[in-house]
Design a protein that fits this description.
The chain is of the alpha/beta class. It contains ten helices and eleven strands. The strands form three sheets. Strands 1-11-8-7-5-6 form a six-stranded parallel β-sheet, sandwiched between helices. It has a three-stranded parallel β-sheet with strand order 3-2-4, sandwiched between helices. A two-stranded antiparallel ribbon has the order 9-10. Bound molecules: 5,10-Methenyltetrahydrofolate (GUE).
């Protein structure tokens, strides 16, 4: 049976380390880190993630700046807010919750975020640096960073291992594959246009699987190499009439099957999700430290 990686517990440990550092900064400089969270419209999932992020800030003594904009807001208006946050010395990190409404060009907005405040790591220049050998972005994207942190805290080495990333999104699959490559893995990406037989056979050879396809339980236990480390990024909501909410979250991996074969596996919920938020807080702390120490 696989070791189940308790993302919530690891996240809690790291959060208390962050809270200590926030207190030190405040004692030494009289300043605390600040994170601005911009949300446009009222998608239920986005509202729930943003609420989680703002609460996590409050728990750690990080200032959060809430920018809530209506669905119909213009792209220019969103960018105006970003510029205002870039100029605000109390804001050390800026996160624009994705996805944005169709009439707003995400790349245009993300490009306007000051590189020094890009705590999501989604600025095209940060992604470009992530892709280049010998270069490092100021911030690593939170979910990929969470995946690697869970591997390293579980004692799973990456160098020379075969890793597969399932999915190629800009916010998870692509940067996760780049980060694994930087960590010296041999990386393969499988995606929606990969044949079913290739998908299965490539996953079967992988020592490390990062599942970020957004398909409930698509990865079966029989596809997992015995002893592999399986990191499940999927957060798919499926109907569940036995719950008060009417739904529950499941990952991209069939946990029941895969946990009998894998060496390590992350659950959903309670795996990558809480660590993603923690990496956001950590990036905000790092940004604040760089900024405050530079100005003192
Ligand atoms: N600019 C931007 N940055 C993001 O980081 C970003 C984004 N946009 N858009 C959407 C995705 C999704 N995402 C999650 C964060 C936390 C959980 C999380 O905490 N999940 C809990 C469960 C939460 C629940 O029960 O609802 C868990 O897995 O245990 C999940 C997903 C961040 N994203």
């Amino acid at each position: 049976m696989a070791t189940v990686i308790d993302g919530k517990a690891v996240a809690q440990t790291i959060r208390s380390e962050i809270a200590d550092e926030v207190r030190l900064l405040s004692q030494k400089y009289g300043k605390v880190p600040g994170l601005a969270v911009v949300i446009v419209g009222n998608r239920k999932d986005s509202e729930s993630y943003v609420k989680t992020k703002r609460k996590a800030c409050a728990d750690l003594g990080i200032n959060s700046f809430d920018i809530d904009l209506p669905e119909e807001v213009s792209e220019a208006e969103v960018i105006r807010h970003v510029h205002e946050l870039n100029a605000n010395p109390d804001v050390h990190g800026i996160l624009v919750q994705l996805p944005l409404p169709k009439h707003i060009n995400e790349e245009k907005v993300l490009t306007e975020i000051s590189l020094a405040k890009d705590v999501d790591g989604f600025h095209p220049l940060n992604i470009g640096k992530l892709a280049m050998k010998g270069r490092d972005p100021l911030f690593l994207p939170c979910t990929p960073k969470a995946c690697l942190e869970l591997l390293s805290r579980s004692g799973v080495s990456i160098k020379g291992k075969r890793a597969v990333v399932v999915g190629r999104s800009n916010i998870v699959g692509l940067p996760a594959s780049l980060l694994l490559l930087k960590a010296d893995a041999t990386v393969t990406i499988v995606h929606s246009q990969t044949s079913q037989s290739d998908t299965e056979s490539i996953i079967r050879e992988a020592d490390i699987v990062i599942a970020a396809a957004g398909q409930a339980k698509m990865i079966k236990g029989s596809w997992i190499k015995p002893g592999a480390a399986v990191i499940d990024v999927g957060t798919n909501s499926v109907d569940d009439p036995t719950r008060k909410s009417g739904y529950r979250l499941v990952g991209d991996v069939d946990f029941e099957e895969a946990s009998k074969v894998a060496g390590w596996i992350t659950p959903v919920p309670g795996g990558v999700g809480p660590m993603t938020v923690t990496m956001l807080l950590k990036n905000t702390l790092e940004g604040a430290k760089r900024n405050i120490e530079q100005n003192n």
